Amino acid sequence: MKVFKITESVTKYTFGKPINTEAVVLTGEECFRDSLEFLKVKYNQELELDYDMNTQDVIWGLGENQRGMNKKGGIYESFCSDDPRHTPDKKSLYGAHNFIVIDGDNKFGVFVDYPGKVTFDIGFSKKNKLKIIVEESNVDVYIIKGKSPKNIVREFLGIIGESYVPPKWAFGYQQSRWGYKDSKDIKEIAEKFIENKIPCDAICLDIDYMERFKDFTIDKDAFPNFKGFVKEIKEKGFRLIPIIDAGVKIEKGYEVYEEGIENKYFCADDKGEPFIAAVWPGVCHFPDFLNSKAREWFGLKYKFLTDLGIEGFWNDMNEPAIFYTPRGLKEAVETAKASEKENLDIHSFFALQDVFSKMANNIADYKGFYHNMNGNIVNHYKVHNLYGYNMTRSAGEAFRKINSNKRFLLFSRASYIGMHRYGGIWTGDNHSWWEHILLNIKMMPSLNMCGFFYIGADTGGFGSDANEQLVIRWNQFSIFTPLFRNHSAMGTRSQEPYSFGENTKEIITKAIEFRYALIPYIYSEYMKAINNRNMYFMPISFEYNDEMSRRIENQLLLGESLMIAPVYEENAVGRYVYLPEDMLLWKVRDYRNRKYEVVKKGHNYLNVDFDEIPLFIRKNKILVLGKSSHNVESLDSAELNVIAFVENEANYIYYDDDGNSYDFKKGKYSEIIICIRKNNEDYEIEVKNKGNKLVKKISFDIVDVDGNIIKKIIYL
Amino acid sequence: MKVFKITESVTKYTFGKPINTEAVVLTGEECFRDSLEFLKVKYNQELELDYDMNTQDVIWGLGENQRGMNKKGGIYESFCSDDPRHTPDKKSLYGAHNFIVIDGDNKFGVFVDYPGKVTFDIGFSKKNKLKIIVEESNVDVYIIKGKSPKNIVREFLGIIGESYVPPKWAFGYQQSRWGYKDSKDIKEIAEKFIENKIPCDAICLDIDYMERFKDFTIDKDAFPNFKGFVKEIKEKGFRLIPIIDAGVKIEKGYEVYEEGIENKYFCADDKGEPFIAAVWPGVCHFPDFLNSKAREWFGLKYKFLTDLGIEGFWNDMNEPAIFYTPRGLKEAVETAKASEKENLDIHSFFALQDVFSKMANNIADYKGFYHNMNGNIVNHYKVHNLYGYNMTRSAGEAFRKINSNKRFLLFSRASYIGMHRYGGIWTGDNHSWWEHILLNIKMMPSLNMCGFFYIGADTGGFGSDANEQLVIRWNQFSIFTPLFRNHSAMGTRSQEPYSFGENTKEIITKAIEFRYALIPYIYSEYMKAINNRNMYFMPISFEYNDEMSRRIENQLLLGESLMIAPVYEENAVGRYVYLPEDMLLWKVRDYRNRKYEVVKKGHNYLNVDFDEIPLFIRKNKILVLGKSSHNVESLDSAELNVIAFVENEANYIYYDDDGNSYDFKKGKYSEIIICIRKNNEDYEIEVKNKGNKLVKKISFDIVDVDGNIIKKIIYL
Description:
Two copies of one chain form a homodimer.
Chain A (H helix, E strand, L loop, with lengths): L1 E4 L4 E6 L13 E3 L8 E4 L3 E6 L5 E4 L12 E5 L16 E2 L2 E5 L3 E7 L4 E5 L6 E6 L4 E7 L3 H12 L12 E3 L7 H13 L6 E4 L20 H10 L3 E7 L2 E2 L5 H8 L14 E3 L2 E4 L6 H10 L1 H4 L5 E5 L9 H13 L7 H12 L5 H4 L3 E4 L2 E4 H4 L3 H16 L6 E4 L2 E2 L7 E3 L7 H16 L5 E2 L1 E2 L8 H11 L5 E3 L15 H31 L4 E2 L17 E3 L3 E3 L9 E6 L3 E6 L7 E4 L2 E6 L5 E5 L3 E5 L13 E7 L3 E8 L13 E10 L2 E9 L6 E7 L5 E7 L1
Parallel strand pairs in A: 8-24, 14-15, 14-28, 15-16, 16-20, 20-23, 23-25, 25-26, 27-28, 38-42
Antiparallel strand pairs in A: 1-2, 1-3, 2-13, 4-5, 5-12, 6-9, 7-11, 9-10, 10-13, 11-12, 17-19, 18-19, 21-22, 29-30, 30-31, 31-36, 32-35, 33-34, 33-36, 37-38, 39-40, 40-41, 42-43
Helix pairs in contact in A: 5-11, 13-14
């Protein structure tokens, strides 16, 4: 064991010879320690970390995962998995995020930096035993200290490097569906949004835009003049966001295939031949994203699309998902052929069914190919969780070469900590299940803890058929997530905002308008969270220290001013909300109408009709708000609306920047610093403008603890 | 359309020539009406019933089904299905229960008596449209009127005949697991219960007790002297409950097979040959339970086991479940053989996977066999939902021949209304998912509405691995369900009460003890519910008329005195509870310790530690309670404990009978009628004993609305 002091609060313990995942950007200095803090460690073939939890301990983290924000009770396996039917018993989802925070008498974070399978048994096998098992003893374990979970997260965000920042337009609404097959379909979608006056910034292109599912090609029948079409749609106010898949079709003459073969850029099998597995295009090779040259090569392929006017992408199938390999298919077919007698015994029958059902994403296949990491040949299975990460890194690094000061939109399905510097994520193929709204809510702060800020789920659910209520309630939550995309699978019921009745369309439209009106706050909080290493979404106990706050699994703090309490149950027209202090409630039907109510600290039952979105403004906090428009670029920023709930003094820094470049990193951003101070019956307002040239007027609704409203206007 | 007046409140509308399902026991007299009340009807090939719901309408019913007690938002297909992975998108579960109650400005019930597929689209396709689609126009539709849902249910229970009554011992705890393979295993289980002093009445035998899964055989290696073993185990205090499967193994010389062939008692294929499909024993034939002679024949086969001392059974695989047929297997293998090229296109690949994954319970197979119903040859698909019903009827009718005045325990997986007269049900192969505890809670009153009273779920979950908390919380709910059985699948984590740590064992044991102490109340309420056509479990709005009560999906009324509010969320040590009136809370850790608290009407947050079971006694209601023991027969009934929450007057009828015979139907039962009347600072207690010879003493805890307790004792 070697020990490194990374920062004052972070120590790294190195066992064996870990593969450098580049999750952490700081190296630190070697120091001496003969044992780990907090954890018992055992290692031989595997490495095991043990901790005795108290009954009251809460365990936060693990990013994209099942169960509660409090991960207690579960067993989790970090192993990026394409499992669209992720029922509660599934242990692995699309991402692998090995960071947890123990929040008890001891408070500390653990990051297990190992790119293969890591198991977190958090009170599953024994109710108060935390056990982390790493499949090999080559691993870096980071222990992060801090006086509170919030501080521990800040320390952790400090060592993994700054999170991805998308262009501002990416905070607009995105419409997607696997099944929009050609320019006619896309145009029709665009027209529907325009006709129905529903704000929207982008339409995603799923696999059908490509020629036979080949990356960096366009199906010319579906899109005869793609470049012209991109321009035409952009003039209507929408950007197109094409999908890029990990697998490269094996096809003679196809440039990406030919170049990959020529330069040995594909992952290889045990004979050194390009590894073969089938995904959408049929049999494919897989770019070796862990090979820096291959990564650079593939990334620059995106230029084919950026040259056509594309400014955003989603990287899919990069766990990597495998439908089948020749090995698996052969095994299955042979088993089937051997079953050609009528009275198959029942165990043979189940074995036969299994061999077909388990052909996809089979561990034997993951163990059957290799990466070339700077000359070292590494079995894929051991570095599995780095694949999607490095595919997205490949694109992210290329964008800086393609246009060094332009932000591109990029989000990925698979991920590992480290990838958060290059792109966002969506939470994979969920379902139109009410349970998956709640899962969506719970995942958000856990992902923030692991560095992922540009995040969101497939609103309305990807698989299964949605009903109106569910699409309404899911949109009413997703308006708060940085990535706000309605996406669904081919063959499921349509769930665009206008796909249901008039009343449902109206409700969803009002919700989306509210999102656009919230963008000044959302963008400001997003950017400040990243710049100050705060979280955008937090469990409420990260701010409030009472015992009850630690139990709340269905409310979130959003930025520094808001608390949200989404409705996620069928037929519910109300819900319970716990308030750790008095807050100001605004039930939003139409963001233009403001009606506030002071809700008292404690347990409350809230009526929430189908067209209502409850929003809580914390005490002595400020919400800034603008006006909706048809897309982000057309937002009118001349007037800012402030809603403040003030007992004595509230402060807010409203951040803004150009939304497109990285100039903010050089200090080119603006701030409007607002301070409201109660002064007898009135308020003193102080506004300092540091460089904002758009806002001309700020209208204030200041509400006191008794619910009295004072309105003020300040011109800048 | 023909119309029949069944009772004052029930009208039957007959379309075409329906098959007589015998769900309803009354025939009524023909009368004239030219249209249905409430519903619009369209028919041609299909029959469609339409109703425009109001937003506030609640739709109750549908028995064993997904989603809420309020069925709004869902689409449901009545088609008994063996689907152990029943995620929220699944439309069919194991039972088919076509009764709903519309609870709005109009209040009425609808029972669609059709034994094939019926679809209930309850605001799924359009949020306020109720649409019922029957696949053919040969159907009886019953419209049931009443002034409240409770009255409508009572009317409905009146036309479908009296529900099944099990022996009293069946209200004890049952331990089960697929995987207890022989007498040694069973004995070990029994010993563990004895050693740990955990009350238990029965141990279930899953498929392994049989010789190669053949019904009415005993594996002689596993149970060398079965009769002796049954006796031995019974002397230790436990009954054995063997499973009976629907499929009969094709095996020359096997009596059941030979007799079935000889007498043409098996379902036939389209050539008139016995239909072949594989289940646990490999290829099987299926007794034609719709043929009255075959039904009688199969039922009397149970005598093989009753002669060995068996007094209870569970009927399984009777949807009927089909793993594969020669047709399906051949199709799959042929598809596999045709796929023997490496670059399978992706659609062919999915088709290949599908043909294997969809081999089980395939509609083509259900359409491929026939029943002989009194000489009429009927395709199985059209009467699919009658199969499990008539298998259980087969046993139920036989028991009356085997021993006419003895109650046998009998519960089934598949069911249709009508079967409620012959046996209970368990809710099929659920999972160790928290979501399935909630589903369990919601199903219970819906099943009562459809006549099923002896009901319960696999406590702890059948599939997937359970953790300690989940098993604790599930047991804490199941102590209230008439069927209380812990059951799990082979290969999953063990979940017997003693399988976890000492503390968990203690908590579950205390919960089971509480169950046994509650048996006086549970049995009394069960019997009175059946005799008076009331429900045992009710949504709280069936008793309370306020708007909020209609929204509550996670609390139940249990009998006439209690309300329960189970905890069903991971890590939760509290929950919200809505009280429509003041109630008396008893948080039960150990039923021997009584501490009460008056909880005020309205919304309440309740702390509920892992070892606590919150129980609410309604105002002016009485709970009767006994003492726990190791099994039901050994319960000491000499002392009855009464806990009463009295504002002015509370009345209770404590019912009891011999627990074993049907003499209660001839009036041979006892009642103790208790009346407690507040009289200034004191209470008048009146106790009338109508024939109870066991109770000698009643101890009273009488609590007033301020929480003051008065203790009294009355000797009988």
